[in-house]
Amino acid sequence: MRAFSLSLLYTGLLVVGEAVSGCHGKSSDCVDASIIAHTGEPLGKEVQYSNVTIYVAKPDPENPRTKPRAGIVLIYLSDIFGLGIPENKLLADSYARAGYLTVVPDLFDGSPAPSDLNTPGFNLTAFLEAHEPAVIDPIIAAAFGYARERLNATRFATPGYCFGGRHAFRVLSSLLSDHADVAFAAHPTLLGLDEVASADKPAALATAENDEYLDGDARLALEKALAAAGYPYQVNLYSGTEHAFGVRVPLDDPEQKYAKEEAFSQAVRWFDRFLVKGTEGEAE
Ligand SMILES: *[C@@H]1O[C@H](CO)[C@@H](O)[C@H](O)[C@H]1NC(C)=O
Ligand SMILES: *[C@@H]1O[C@H](CO)[C@@H](O)[C@H](O)[C@H]1NC(C)=O
Ligand SMILES: *[C@@H]1O[C@H](CO)[C@@H](O)[C@H](O)[C@H]1NC(C)=O
After folding, report:
1. Catalytic residue among 79, 178, 181, 211, which?
2. How far apart are the C-alpha atoms of 66 and 24, rounded to whole Å?
3. According to the UniProt entry, where is the signal peptide (predicted)?
4. Can you give the pTM of this predicted structure?
């Protein structure tokens, strides 16, 4: 039944029910939808490093998934709402419950986009112009520095959402001096095909059926660029979803809530596969 529901993931059919992934009968080592917090108080704390605010979500040392992930840090690259909405911190907390020490750099230096983009006076074009890679890259570099220096990290994965999805690819490439070992991007925006081509590490994507920033043609172009690039990749398309479903969904919409949970499990399984020794399907 479990294998059956996982295979349905790839068909894009509507499946309503509990998302179960990564268990393989080892109950002590399970990742399932119950570890995802959609609402509530974030549990991590914010630190300052090199003038960058960084939200840190630590795994429970007693969690059997924590020890095999020692030395790994997830650098969570957020959407434009950043630390201004609880959902990003809650997802970082959820990654910590999957055993991953997770940091979320404030990419917007205390001034993220308002949670409602229609807020009068907010100019998205101007906001994006003010947060070009030349501004964002050094902030991400600070997060890598913090992870190396303070958390003893030696291996990195980058879950990226929307705006951060592009940057998840950039840190897989020779464009930057810091490199992640594996990335996951949910509904990336502004991601250039040249950036996909420059990357050279495994990358997984979660994409939305109805995404004004990544429509069907753009998604197909991305798939072609991934296939041509030659590194391991995975592209999942979730029916009934809108842009941003990986972070924020109407919780009374079972199809989108399920998709958010599955996209989270997809990211965890992808990171496990390439970073954790002894994981089924591990690359080395
Ligand atoms: C940190 O910010 C202060 C005040 O804005 C500035 O003077 C200093 O140069 C900054 N340091 C770094 C490392 O960017
Ligand atoms: C929004 O910002 C862009 C780029 O800075 C500018 O060209 C445009 O006029 C602004 N729009 C409004 C409505 O202020
Ligand atoms: C990092 O390593 C140093 C030196 O071995 C150790 O003192 C420190 O507790 C470690 N920090 C973490 C967060 O593991």
Report:
1. 211
2. 18
3. 1-19
4. 0.88
CB contact at 8 A, 77 and 160: yes
Query: Would you say the CB of residue 152 lies under 6 angstroms from ligand 3?
Result: yes
Number of CB atoms found within 10 A of residue 114's CB: 16
List phi, psi (to 5°) of 99: 100, 0
Each residue's pLDDT tens digit, 171-229: 999 788 889 999 999 999 999 999 999 999 999 999 999 999 999 999 999 999 999 99
- The CA-atom distances, in angstroms, between 71 and each of 147, 156, 171 are 9, 9, 18
Say if residues 37 and 90 touch (Cβ distance below 8 Å): yes
Measured between alpha carbons, how far is 246 from 208 in angstroms, rounded to an integer? 9
More confident residue, 72 or 284: 72
- End-to-end CA distance of the chain: give it in Å, rounded: 30
Integer Cα distance of 27 and 82 in angstroms: 33
